[in-house]
């Protein structure tokens, strides 16, 4: 548990947290890593799993340095920078791995360069010139080396921005990196993270964050400010009333880094939210993970998971210090203490005001939430994280739906597949077919000779799923629903009801559970194709409040009648 100030429910009626809570949380996270510094202070090697890069000590140094930099640049005690300054003297001499092609130190170089730029009066300008030369020499390799063709293009941009401030001619590197991400912009504030359909939290804590910081520190503000505003216009609807972001995509161990773009909007003055709403979203995310220490080890360290340690949440590049990219969530400390984002009374977030059903054509996503329980669901008709030519399904990307209170199970939940030779086919690459208010659609080819065209329509806690399946007569079609831990009880309920085409129902057990609890139960529907083209319809429900009656489907008119009498035609 963190030592935090008393809650202030007058200034912050929704979270109780103020700037003082953010400062205390930052100080506690920094204090907890102190025992793990190397004698020369150039590495922070935390206990636990090693990443595949072998650069864990450098990760610990760089990512906590970023947190210390936000803290000091925002008015904290400059003494917090002293051990990092000492580490700069020896790190480039060899304790830090060299920056090479496609190698992790390039990522960490960006955090170090950004921290040095933000804290220049207290740190860089006081270093011995010989130390400055060694650090510059190490950082410059980030401008020469090949990097992964995704958000990594923004790391040389960040390093080059600092070196440019020191008088180096690095504009070509900055232009090259910013030009590269242009090809991935899909509109509505959404970028792909590299080639392929990779849409997740990296859109906020990388693709928007680094250009926004570059603009904040003197770079061009457009088109990045306009795009950030467009992104934030819908992004706030992806935060649960309990503060949790939606559990989808990779690197989820960064947790409250999801608050970074909200603060970036305030830094650039382009937030579509009132200052009180912006702080409510950001403080809600931080409080969700830290208020009761649920994301911390007994030593006060961020764990490798969502709450406690959770192996399925990890990627091969995840090491013990990796979660400290959560430091990005503390970006708001750069705002002065008298900024309206800190002094305004908290106001409700979007999900607390009214039910939401927002279709995002660019990424092919549909965000829908319910004010009665504050729960957010993300219907996925566009993000698949597939390599060229396809590959195995990634459970963090290719499910039909995700939420802020459930996670994928090892047994394929929220999945529509064909049962061939006893095995369920993967979803594979997703082709988006459009999205609009309350609906989204896509297609996929489970096998070269079969086709599934799917459309989702949402209202309240319900999602109607219609699938038009092109497959041989007699082919078994299997649809699964939300994976709920057995312990969820009445706090969270889910249902999967057949409306057309499905003839059998069952419940499957996933003994490994999900990030939200063990022994998950997954509802399942099955039916057989009646011809070369068959239609299957069901309704998937996830709710933490009493749910209205499920809708009725009319196969003749392909319409759905909702509980309030509203009739909608499914966009086939």
UniProtKB/TrEMBL annotation:
Domain DUF2264, first and last residues per copy: 18-348
| Alphabetized Pfam families for the sequence | DUF2264
Domain of life, per UniProt, equals: Bacteria
Q: Which InterPro entries match?
A: DUF2264_N, UCP014753
Identify this protein by name: DUF2264 domain-containing protein
Q: Which organism is it from?
A: Nonomuraea roseola
Traced from the root, the source organism's taxonomic lineage reads: Bacteria, Bacillati, Actinomycetota, Actinomycetes, Streptosporangiales
């Amino acid at each position: 548990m963190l030592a935090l100030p008393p809650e202030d429910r007058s200034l912050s009626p929704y979270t109780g947290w103020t700037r003082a809570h953010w400062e205390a949380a930052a100080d506690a996270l920094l204090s907890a890593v102190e025992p793990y510094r190397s004698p020369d202070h150039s590495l922070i090697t935390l206990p636990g799993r090693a990443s595949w890069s072998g650069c864990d000590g450098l990760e610990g140094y760089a990512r906590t340095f970023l947190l210390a930099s936000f803290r000091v640049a925002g008015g904290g005690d400059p003494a917090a920078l002293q051990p990092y300054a000492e580490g700069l003297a020896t790190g480039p001499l060899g304790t830090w791995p060299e920056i090479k092609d496609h190698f992790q130190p390039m990522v960490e170089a960006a955090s170090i360069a950004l921290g040095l730029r933000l804290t220049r009066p207290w740190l860089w300008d006081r270093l011995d010139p010989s130390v400055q030369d060694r650090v510059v020499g190490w950082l410059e390799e980030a401008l020469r080396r090949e990097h992964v063709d995704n958000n990594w293009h923004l790391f040389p941009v960040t390093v080059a921005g600092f070196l440019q401030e020191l008088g180096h001619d690095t504009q070509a590197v900055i232009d090259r990196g910013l030009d590269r991400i242009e090809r991935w912009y899909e509109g509505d504030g959404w970028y792909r993270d590299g080639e392929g359909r990779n849409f997740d939290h990296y859109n906020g804590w990388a693709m928007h964050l680094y250009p926004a910081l570059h603009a904040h520190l003197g770079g061009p503000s457009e088109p990045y400010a306009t795009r950030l505003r467009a992104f934030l216009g819908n992004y706030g609807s992806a935060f649960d009333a309990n503060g949790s972001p939606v559990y989808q995509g990779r690197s989820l161990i960064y947790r409250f880094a999801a608050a970074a773009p909200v603060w970036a909007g305030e830094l650039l003055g382009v937030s579509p939210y009132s200052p009180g709403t912006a702080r409510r979203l950001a403080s809600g995310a931080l409080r969700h993970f830290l208020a009761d220490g649920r994301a911390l080890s007994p030593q006060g360290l961020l764990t490798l998971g969502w709450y406690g340690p959770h192996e399925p949440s990890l990627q091969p590049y995840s090491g013990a210090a990796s979660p400290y990219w959560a430091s990005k969530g503390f970006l708001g400390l750069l705002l002065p203490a008298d900024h309206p984002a800190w002094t305004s009374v908290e106001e409700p977030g979007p999900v607390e005001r009214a039910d939401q059903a927002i279709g995002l054509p660019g990424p092919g996503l549909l965000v829908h939430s319910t004010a009665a329980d504050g729960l957010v669901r993300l219907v996925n008709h566009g993000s698949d994280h597939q390599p060229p030519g396809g590959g195995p399904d990634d459970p963090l990307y290719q499910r039909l739906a995700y939420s802020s209170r459930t996670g994928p199970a090892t047994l394929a939940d929220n999945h529509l597949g064909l049962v061939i030779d006893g095995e369920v086919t993967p979803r594979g690459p997703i082709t988006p077919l459009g999205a609009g208010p309350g609906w989204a659609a896509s297609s996929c080819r489970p096998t070269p000779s079969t086709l599934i065209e799917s459309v989702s329509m949402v209202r309240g806690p319900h999602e109607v799923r219609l699938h038009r399946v092109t497959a041989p007569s007699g082919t078994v079609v299997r649809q699964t629903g939300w994976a709920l831990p057995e312990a969820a009880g009445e706090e969270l309920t889910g249902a999967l009801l057949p409306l057309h085409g499905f003839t059998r129902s069952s419940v499957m057990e996933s003994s490994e559970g999900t990030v939200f609890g063990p022994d998950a139960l997954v509802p399942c529907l099955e039916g057989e194709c009646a011809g070369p083209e068959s239609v299957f319809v069901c309704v998937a429900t996830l709710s933490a409040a009493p749910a209205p009656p499920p809708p009725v489907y009319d196969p003749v008119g392909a319409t759905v009648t909702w509980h309030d009498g509203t009739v909608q035609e499914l966009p086939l």
